[in-house]
Amino acid sequence: MRAVIDAHIHLDMYTKQEQQRILQDLDDANVEALICVSNHLQSAQRLLEIGKEDVRVKPAIGYHPEQELPTEEEQAALWELIDQEQHRFMAIGEVGLPYYMRKENPALDLSAYVDLLERFIRKAAQLNKPIVLHAVYEDAPVVCDLLEKYQVKKANFHWFKGDKQTVERMIKNGYYISITPDCMYESEIQQLISAYPLEQIMVETDGPWPFEGEFQGRPTHPHMLHRIVEKIAYLKKIDEGQVYSQLYRNTKEFYNLID
User: Fold this and answer.
1) Contact present, 91 and 130 (Cβ < 8 Å)
2) In terms of DSSP H, where are the helices of 88-224?
3) How far apart are the first and last CA of the chain?
4) How far is CA 250 from CA 53, 152, 181, 247, in A?
């Protein structure tokens, strides 16, 4: 079992006790760092505070798209925080488009969400920061258009799902994907792993989101990353040690984690 990095976790959504337990467990689980994406302004502020206390916590600042849009005041505060803390956070994220919310409410106006996402992408380009994206199925090509418009290369489509044409476009553009524990039982994700270059893959928990299969009823924890690595090695028929090394290198380079 070699070192891994959780490329996408919502650490602030765990209880304080759960946060402490996870951080205490990291060394034994051989998890070197957590890329902690934020959902909104308060989420980002909490993560920046946790990051001051533990250097293994690597905050990202963003606004999760599966919720109502932020007020003008919250947006202004977010941009101010991003500018003020640009040397302390690792990435812009989690940002994207509200695919699942739109499924429940087809009349939802997408244009304001696209405008907000474009502003985040433009900011990532200005600051030369990687960006972590919530963009699945038909939303993904829209996001690819925006990334191409601002020539953003360091883009991670976390827990991605989409058609073959979009996958090929993402690979060609050098975008990354990060794989969750559902790869143990979801054929769609297993096919994606087989199709995507190992050099553009990372692993994540998206905790505290719960998983099924062997993880049913278990709290989502970064130690699950090792099962993902095993599955990637099995599906790609590549030595497990080589997979560990490549995924670790991918994540360090993508998030500019300097030793």
Assistant:
1) yes
2) 99-104, 111-127, 139-149, 164-173, 187-195
3) 20
4) 26, 17, 18, 5
Hunting for tokens 């106006």 — which residue is that?
Answer: 109
Q: Which of 99, 154, 98 is nearest to 131 (CA)?
A: 154
Amino acid at 228: I
**185 with 213: CB under 8 angstroms?**
yes
Residue 209 token pair: 């989101």
Instruction: At 95, list the tokens.
Output: 């940002």
User: What counts of helices (H) and strands (E) characterise the chain?
Assistant: 10, 8
Residue 86: Cβ-neighbour burial (10 angstroms; 0-12, 13-18, 19+): middle
Q: Name the residue type at position 242.
A: Q
Sign of the Cα pseudo-torsion (210, 48, 33, 204, in order): positive
- State the Cα–Cα distance between residues 49 and 45, nearest whole angstrom: 6
Cβ 235 vs Cβ 228: under 8 Å: no
Per residue of the chain (259 residues), give pLDDT as tens.
799 999 999 999 999 999 999 999 999 999 999 999 999 999 999 999 999 999 999 999 999 999 999 999 999 999 999 999 999 999 999 999 999 999 999 999 999 999 999 999 999 999 999 999 999 999 999 999 999 999 999 999 999 999 999 999 999 999 999 999 999 999 999 999 999 999 999 999 999 999 999 999 999 999 999 999 999 999 999 999 999 999 999 999 999 997 6
